Amino acid sequence: MRTNMYNSRINSFKGKLIVSCQALPHEPLHSPFIMGRMALAAKQGGASGIRANTVEDIIEIKKNVDLPIIGIIKRDYSDSKIYITPTIKEVDELMTVGPDIIAMDATEGIRPNNTSLDDLYYETREKYPDQLLMADCSTIEEAIYADKLGFDFIGTTMVGYTEQSKNLKIEENDFYILKEIYKNVSHPIIAEGNIDTPTKARRVIELGAFSVVVGSAITRPQLITKKYVEALA
Fold first, then answer.
1. Which three-class secondary structure state does DSSP give residue 213?
2. What are the φ and ψ backbone dihedral angles of 80, each rounded to 5 degrees?
């Protein structure tokens, strides 16, 4: 692992909460200014890290908080379904703002321009050997593969969001997926994806996750509102 140069910052969110502050262009809170304030609100609530999308949002977030940042760029390509930091272009852009960790989609499938996860991983390592990398996975097998490749952190971010994981739920059988990943990988696990209650967040830490990321349940008020409306319907 390449955690030595970031040791104090990375260890600051061990066993703690990372808040994902993201809003896509079609969402009402889409704005670097709003995401900066959202990150500040998360810090005031006790968050120990931020996950953020786009260079613009990360710049604004850094103006508001001095917390470790997991940076991504979500970008669609016509020749691939993979959209979280899918090519070296997005990695290069993120490196201009220096996130503590760069996360990328580590699920099955061809990347844009007919490249593989191995291609992107090794190109990134060659260009930026000291940069910490997180693998956003959707299955146990993907997590094990990413771990063997050498990703510094293994994430459960994509569980339930890919074709190969569409019938999986991270919380099923007391987080069976997380338990299996924990038994089979050597790098720290960052639990993420549909961890939408404090009870679930606490449980994944108890099961061995290095940290836990919560997004929509905190930072997407339209989805929070919808849950209440559906409950009253």
1. strand
2. -160, 145
For the four alpha carbons of 72, 159, 15 and 197, in that order, the dihedral sign comes to: positive
How far is the C-alpha of 18 from the C-alpha of 30, rounded, in Å? 20
What distance lies between CA 192 and its chain's CA centroid?
Answer: 7
pLDDT (mean) for 164-193? 96
Q: Which tens digits make up the pLDDT trace of 28-62?
A: 999 999 999 999 999 999 999 999 999 999 999 99
The pTM for the full model equals 0.95
Token pair recorded at residue 125: 């390592």
Phi, psi of 18 (to 5 degrees): -110, 130
Mean of pLDDT values over 82-97: 98
Contact by Cβ (8 Å): 24, 47: no
